[in-house]
Design brief:
By secondary structure, the chain is mainly beta. It folds into 3 domains: about 110 residues, Nucleic acid-binding proteins (OB fold (Dihydrolipoamide Acetyltransferase, E2P)), CATH 2.40.50.140; about 120 residues, Inhibitor of vertebrate lysozyme, Ivy (3-Layer(aba) Sandwich), CATH 3.40.1420; about 55 residues. The strands form 3 sheets. It has an 8-stranded antiparallel β-sheet, with helices on one face.
């Protein structure tokens, strides 16, 4: 429990998310920072702090005092003060330190320190708003910290990748054409200014990669799937025609998954040599299933 003003009752950690807004002061140690938000912890309680506009996120491990408006477990701060670092390691810092065991055995700090309720709070605060996209739900966080979402576009499925600041880096559908305003949210350049983009009658994927490269995917006038890549300056790099995997159209994928006792099959997306689908496995877990080019299930990952 955080030290707080005398008017704060001892049971503040149990306040429901729909609680009224309160003026409050919270203190704690920063356990994770992402864009304009940080999470803080003190004596087992965790809170989400929305930083004042323009303020850089304090370093993880530092202790802060945040004054602002408290609503549920989220405090919108008007003032944040970083306390001086203590001399020597604190017992709680030693207890919460996460050891880096390399890429195969790494235990991520956020997986230990950030509970599901905080992840959901942050997701609600940072979920991108895209024209025509509805029912957006957080699927998982990648190791790079990106947020992966599932949603709907009309009667079809859509996937979105965004950063903690709400910027969108990838949008793709399971066949429906992306609306132009959605494409414009992803690309740093106008679609009409990209050489060869007019070969696509409909765009089903728009992606801005970390180094600035652009990837477009969609259908040409003959109904064939094309992938067009551009360098960071928007110059045409290459065009690839993506051949369908035999027997693995949407109906074929659904039939194979249902034969393996998967249900509630949603998203079906295609890579160069594999298919990915979202479904509920026989144990009732929502998972992402990967099928190889022969239609065999070779991987299953639990979704958020």
């Amino acid at each position: 429990m955080f030290p707080a003003k005398k008017t704060l009752m001892a049971g503040v950690a149990l306040i429901a998310l729909a609680a009224p807004v309160l003026a409050e002061e919270l203190r704690g140690r920063v356990t994770e920072s992402f864009g304009s938000h940080v999470t803080i912890e003190d004596r087992g309680s965790r809170w989400l702090i929305r930083l004042p506009e323009g303020m850089a996120a304090p370093a993880e491990g530092s202790r802060i005092i945040a004054d602002g408006r408290l609503e549920g477990r989220t405090l919108t701060a008007d003032l944040v003060t970083v306390e001086p670092a203590p001399h020597g390691p604190r017992a709680e810092d030693r207890r919460d330190r996460v050891e880096d065991r390399g890429p195969r055995g790494r235990e991520r700090a956020e997986d230990r320190l950030v509970p599901r309720v905080v992840t959901d709070l942050v997701a609600a605060a940072t979920a991108p708003r895209l024209p025509g996209v509805t029912d957006l739900a957080l699927r998982h966080r990648s190791r790079s910290g990106d947020l992966h979402w599932s949603g709907r576009l009309g009667s079809g499925q859509v996937r979105v990748v965004s950063a903690w600041d709400g910027s969108v880096t990838r949008v793709e559908t399971d066949g429906a054409a992306l609306p132009r305003p959605v494409i414009d949210r992803v690309l740093p350049l106008r679609l009409s200014g990209l050489e060869g983009a007019d070969r696509l009658q409909s765009v089903t994927r728009a992606e801005l990669r970390p180094r600035g490269e652009i990837v477009l995917r969609g259908l040409d006038a003959a109904g064939s799937e094309l992938e067009i890549r551009y360098d960071r300056r928007g110059r045409l790099d290459r065009v690839e025609r993506r051949l369908p995997l035999p027997g693995l159209d949407r109906a074929g994928v659904i039939a194979r998954l249902e034969a393996a006792r998967y249900t509630d099959i949603g998203w079906v997306g295609y890579g160069p040599r594999h298919v990915e689908a979202e479904a509920t496995n026989p144990y009732g877990e929502r998972v992402e299933v990967r099928l190889n080019r022969e239609g065999q299930i070779d991987r299953e990952r639990l979704l958020n």
